[in-house]
Amino acid sequence: MVTARIPASIAPRPRPTRRALGGLALGALAAGLPGRAMAAWPDHPVTAIVPYPPGGNNDILARLLSPAVERALGQTLIIENRGGGGGTIGATAAARAEPDGYTLAFLDIGTLAIAPFLFARLSYQPESFEPLIRLTEVPLTVGVPAGSPYRTLQDLLAAAKAKPNGITYASPGNGTAGHLAAQMLVSLSGARMVHVPYRGSGPAVTELTAGRVDLLIDGTLLPAVQQGQLRALATTGPHRSPFLPDVPTVAEAALPAYSFLSWHGVAAPKGTPAPVLARLNAAFDAALRDPMVVERAKQLGLPLKGGTAAEFAAFASEERKKMEKLVQESGARVE
């Protein structure tokens, strides 16, 4: 017996069951949810992770910018300090957060450009984030206690060479910009000093002011210098800081090949929706131009930047190339 083949185009189709129809309806509803949820974003507070303790520039920037950002978004920005590991603990928490627009991170040169090459084991990578905006570009200050016997950078380096490991230098933690800037100073000068890492800039500045360490290179020293609590020996950028015009650069004072700039930015977990990223960039860019923010940043010695997410991504990529070479040359490594 021969069985006739019925063309698929005219073959009878089974009627969908009530369960199948219900499933299709639920699928359509689920497909529509992202659009409606996106339109409502943000409908509750946004968490901003600062991967350092209170007192450092990341924390200062978060608290300085948050009022203007909150006005733009219509929601509260909850600042959450998660220090430790040179910023890598907080950065890891941010990278692993849900990419729904409700978690941000105030990151920096240490977490986005230095840590991938400095740390033997790292629980995140720069690609774990969506860059949002660059906030600053900061020359660091080489500071000593007000009562320090070292009047110039040359004095300090000469003492370090005369008595190897007799001078201590603090940093905000292993892998931070201050650590690598000091390591660069050590490498180029040939001096040997003892590294004393702290959990953020705040504790490091406190210990320096008290005279319990000899040296700190950091971006938060300007107020203490202006108040006479610390002495600035040099700044780390290629040009003199407009905030300390009478203080020479490291290149002028002792090491012509030396130049180091720190920077800060905001990022979100990889996969955060593009419309959310666009709104966040616009909110932060506007906050960076707020007159009150600009004036306070000048008082703190923080040159503000701004711009697009794409510009920040390209900048951070180039910085990683520079930092990889610098870390290798310095021989610094955190196991």
From TrEMBL:
InterPro entries named among the record's database cross-references: BUG, Bug_dom1
Keyword Cell division: no
Superkingdom of this protein's organism: Bacteria
Signal peptide: 1-39
Entry-linked CDD domains: PBP2_Bug_TTT
Transmembrane regions: none
Keywords: Signal
Protein family membership: Belongs to the UPF0065 (bug) family.
Protein name, entry field: Tripartite tricarboxylate transporter substrate binding protein
Species name: Teichococcus coralli
